[in-house]
Amino acid sequence: MNKAILLIQCPDQKGIVSDVSRFLYSYNGNILEVDQHVDEEMGMFFMRAAWELDSFSLKKDEIASRFEAEIGKKFQMEFKLHFNFPKPKMAVFVSKLSHCLFDILGRHHAGQLEVDIPLVISNHADLKPIVEAFGIPFFYIPVNTSNKDTAEAEQLALLKEHRVDFIVLARYMQVVSAEFIRHFPNRIINIHHSFLPAFVGARPYHAAYERGVKIIGATAHYVTEELDAGPIIEQEVARVRHHNTIPELVQIGQDVEKVTLSKAIKYHLDRKVLTFKNKTIIFY
Ligand SMILES: Nc1nc2c(c(=O)[nH]1)N[C@@H](CN(C=O)c1ccc(C(=O)N[C@@H](CCC(=O)O)C(=O)O)cc1)CN2
């Protein structure tokens, strides 16, 4: 079913839900899903409304301007309008580890992810055979401290050429620049292999082992300039024991990473994530 999704945030006040519903009804909209949340401390209102588009009397490119004129301005809304078609284009960035890549390509192949994957980009050539076995173009762009700018420029050119909508860092072990992130604000999802805010950085399993924790986890978050500090979309944990070695922690953790990342991708694809002050509201 062709759907439109509105994601709204604005100062909280009476009548917002009523006016948004009346707007959709006035243009013959059949509301399919509606959720809202009030952050009382911040005095902020958040809402997600999804409705059937085929019977809607406004054309796709008329909706945002009509909504802004009739509702948005009145409530000083910040809103984003999305459609569940055409399929969004998702680029995957990887380094040497394949577990998250395999999980994503396997779910995509099984029809579990409503996306197109036009390309995979990596700073190592190791995973080229796997990606090409799934019939997806693989681009090897080495990155080091001296060529990061030119490497990122090449990455951005490929992303633009393939009209990529959002990016998944599937254990991509390079810190991306603020300039790169500026092109995809809240559209880069990273899987960090720890239960943030514990153990930021490149080697969380070693840090967890040294600390002797009894629970490890994974965190999917939108990427910001500050490492492992962006808005958290999803987290998951697993119990570990004193006798677990580092390789065992890695194995337990990698299973958690895969599940956590796939959930975060689905929430993003279903337009169920709003961001506010470096945090997220997820309308499950
Ligand atoms: N701007 C950001 N870039 C990236 C983030 C992020 O949150 N903000 N997350 C990382 C992924 N990551 C942890 O989840 C991570 C990746 C890389 C490193 C790191 O220290 N890398 C070294 C090089 C390591 C190597 O070459 O193997 C570096 O870049 O100098 C820490 C954490 C993805 N990017």
Automatic annotation (TrEMBL):
Pathways per UniProt: Purine metabolism; IMP biosynthesis via de novo pathway; formate from 10-formyl-5,6,7,8-tetrahydrofolate: step 1/1
ACT domain segment(s): 5-86
Stored Gene3D superfamilies: 3.30.70.260, Formyl transferase, N-terminal domain
Database matches in PROSITE patterns: ACT
GO biological processes: 'de novo' IMP biosynthetic process; one-carbon metabolic process
Keywords of the record: Hydrolase, One-carbon metabolism, Purine biosynthesis
Active site (record annotation): 228
Keyword Hydrolase attributed: yes
GO MF annotations in UniProt: formyltetrahydrofolate deformylase activity
Pfam families: ACT, Formyl_trans_N
Enzyme nomenclature, EC number: 3.5.1.10
Catalytic activity: (6R)-10-formyltetrahydrofolate + H2O = (6S)-5,6,7,8-tetrahydrofolate + formate + H(+)
Family affiliation: Belongs to the PurU family.
Record's protein name: Formyltetrahydrofolate deformylase
Lineage, uppermost ranks: Bacteria, Pseudomonadati, Bacteroidota, Cytophagia, Cytophagales
